[in-house]
Amino acid sequence: MPCRLSVSSLTADIDCRNYDSDTWLTFLEGILDANVLSCLFALKTAVNANDQQPLVSIVMPVYNGAHTLHAALNSVMGQTYTNYECIVLDNCSNDETGHIACAFAGRDSRFRCVRNASVLPVMQNHNAVVARMSPVADYCQILQADDALEATCLAEKVALAQRYPDVGLVACYSMWGDSRVPEADVPFSAEHLPGREAAGRVLRGEFYPFLSPSSVLLRADFVRRRGKLYDETVLHGDVQAAYEILEEADFGFVPKVLVRVGRSAQSVTSRENAPLNRNLAANLQLLVSYGPKFLPADKLASSVNSRLRHYYATLARAALEGRSTEFWEFHCGALDQAGYPFQYGWLARAVAERCWRKPKGSARLVLGRFRRGPA
To answer: For the chain, which terminus, N or C, has the lower number of CB atoms within 10 Å?
Structure first.
């Protein structure tokens, strides 16, 4: 039969302060039936397990995420790791986001739902939910509302971090849609690397573990030390924060798919990045800003040259497509800000190379441009 008896009702007439849990459970063996005892031992085991597990604070910033939120929160509830809190910060959504989050909070005390008084900019909302992390949390796991965690995600990341106290950031493989992200494939077998070495390899393009903030578990002490985790002036504050943590902490990697990254076109970062391909500019700026900290001069120079060739190859396609004036103004400004002003000669060479290598594809781009009319 199911056990509906609370521990408080069983011990109302016993001064439990004079006994530890093993003593009073032994005492109760003589007066309780087997079913009740089974429930009590299960409760004791669960409490002891949580006492031994570090606390993970899962923080979720969300705006109008009702279409994916239920799946994301279900993935949290399905974790094999049990000592966590999950805080959902609703950025004044006008869909069912708040109702979904509050329903989970009503079912499980580890979940909390909070609503902003007014809409915050995206990165400010991220910082606001991180600031609500428990002051006694050992780790911080950010979860985007359109992502989901595999059942063993927290357990495996925390286990690695516990093995290596100098690790400040633990990453993993991610699934994007139906396929694993190839850029995340690590060119090494070690699960632990010095932070500066890992950051240098990421900057050189050897692998990329920062597809989503959800892919990374952070040691909470490093999060608190930063004050605001993310730079609120850029949309890639999560990657900046990762590089800055790796300046002083080591890198851990679990070579398993532990996160599923959503492909939602409705996400804020998708809406902001896609029209102008802001990622192209952000990646160059990150290399220029953090490369001198992690790369020797010769490798930095070759990495910048490689990144610029990729940049102009992308601009060559844009030229054949006939992208808008806004697009070109943005990228001319971005290149100038990175310290590499726009070069017409580089673009002309990139266009010629594309037409030579992909004549049919280039012709289709030009024909499509004329069919669409002026941008």
So the answer is: N
Using N-to-C axis directions, what is the helix angle for 344-357 and 359-372, rounded to 10°?
110
Spans of all domains in the chain: 7-50, 53-270, 275-372
* Residue carrying structure tokens 């103004």: 329
Only one residue has tokens 């990165």, namely 123
What beta strand segments (E) does 162-245 contain?
A: 167-176, 179-180, 192-193, 217-219
> What's domain 53-270's architecture?
Alpha-Beta Complex (3.90)
- 259 near 175, Cβ under 8 Å? yes
Question: Of 167, 170, 158, nearest to 213 (Cα)?
Answer: 170
Backbone phi, then psi, for 330, in 5-degree steps?
-65, -50
The pair of three-digit structure tokens given for residue 209, joined into one six-digit string: 């573990």
pTM: predicted TM-score of the whole model, two decimal places: 0.81
Q: How far apart (Å, rounded) are the C-alpha atoms in residues 334 and 327? A: 11
Which pLDDT tens digits describe the chain residue by residue (375 residues)? 444 333 333 333 444 334 444 554 454 455 555 555 454 444 444 444 455 899 999 999 999 999 999 999 999 999 999 999 999 999 999 999 999 999 999 999 999 999 999 999 999 999 999 999 999 999 999 999 999 999 999 999 999 999 999 999 999 988 887 766 655 566 667 899 999 999 999 999 888 888 889 999 999 999 999 999 999 988 789 999 999 999 999 999 999 999 999 865 445 555 555 678 998 999 999 999 999 999 999 999 999 999 999 999 999 999 999 999 999 999 999 999 999 999 999 999 999 999 999 988 888 888 877 666 665
Question: Measured between alpha carbons, how far is 88 from 213 in angstroms, rounded to an integer?
Answer: 15
